[in-house]
Design a protein that fits this description.
3 helices
């Protein structure tokens, strides 16, 4: 079994199933903080899919895109955390 077979038959199905489970968690999350964590995890899993695609197609430009998406996801999570902190202080 080569690395490409491992990526196609094990990693991609695992990431696909995890995206479905995370999206369900995003929809039924009782609190806003649960939804923020689920959204961050969705973006992280998407970054994993982009990385696998980059390796299988041998196009390293997609890794740059994944890195930029990771930076945006991190900044978004920090912004949501700041918003939740301010909202709790006002209540």
């Amino acid at each position: 079994m080569s690395v490409y077979d491992y990526l196609y038959y094990i990693i991609l199905p695992t990431l696909s199933v995890s995206i479905l489970i995370i999206f369900i968690r995003f929809l039924i999350g009782p609190k806003l903080s649960d939804r923020v964590v689920a959204l961050d995890l969705l973006l992280t899993t998407g970054i994993g899919i982009i990385a696998v695609y980059s390796v299988t197609t041998n196009q390293p430009a997609f890794l740059d895109i994944a890195m930029i998406l990771a930076l945006i996801a991190f900044l978004g999570t920090v912004a949501f955390a700041y918003y939740l902190e301010k909202r709790e202080k006002n209540d």
